């Protein structure tokens, strides 16, 4: 049945978009978006024009929600959804996607640790030398204007 076709009126296998969204813990707008980008099949339409989905879409949406909660991109999520229904493909593909994502997450965590250290140095320097003084004389603002590290050690800051 194509998107322009209408679905029969109430059926236990068809769920309204609102019911489905509530069941999987997503906003209705998220379901519309996932349909728009092709992560879930197009909704059927009742004669009233309301979207309805087969109950089988619920499992796919739960998978999508968990992928997005873990920070997988739309494309990574699309590939994982495809893998979840393809018995001809090997789970090593899913592992490779998860491994690549984990590597990216760890790189972001390392960058956040560097930012934490840099900001901590700025704050310590301010506390030690100028806190309570006029804002234009603040070491944080001075260092930010110059692009200078918060300390004089050679490891630099935020670099």
UniProtKB/TrEMBL annotation:
Domain of life the protein comes from: Bacteria
InterPro entries in the cross-refs: DNA-bd_dom_put_sf, MerR-type_HTH_dom, MerR_fam, Tscrpt_reg_MerR_DNA-bd
A molecular function (GO) term: DNA binding
Residues in HTH merR-type domain copies: 14-83
Signal peptide: none
Tagged with keyword Transcription regulation: yes
Pfam families: MerR, MerR-DNA-bind
Keywords annotated in UniProt: DNA-binding, Transcription, Transcription regulation
Keyword Signal tagged: no
Protein known as: DNA-binding transcriptional MerR regulator
Source organism per UniProt: Hydrogenophaga palleronii
Lineage: Bacteria, Pseudomonadati, Pseudomonadota, Betaproteobacteria, Burkholderiales
């Amino acid at each position: 049945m194509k998107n322009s076709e209408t679905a029969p009126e109430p059926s236990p296998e068809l769920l309204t978009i609102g019911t489905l969204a509530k069941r999987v813990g997503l906003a209705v707008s998220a379901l519309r978006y996932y349909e728009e980008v092709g992560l879930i099949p197009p909704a059927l339409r009742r004669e009233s024009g309301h979207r309805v989905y087969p109950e089988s879409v619920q499992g796919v949406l739960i998978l999508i929600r968990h992928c997005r909660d873990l920070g997988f991109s739309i494309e990574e999520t699309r590939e994982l959804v495809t893998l979840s229904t393809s018995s001809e493909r090997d789970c090593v593909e899913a592992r490779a996607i998860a491994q690549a994502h984990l590597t990216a997450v760890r790189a972001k965590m390392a960058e956040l640790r560097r930012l934490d250290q840099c900001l901590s140095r700025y704050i310590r320097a301010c506390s030690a030398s100028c806190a309570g003084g006029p804002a234009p004389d603040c070491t944080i603002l001075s260092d930010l204007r110059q692009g200078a590290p918060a300390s004089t050690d050679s490891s630099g800051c935020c670099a």
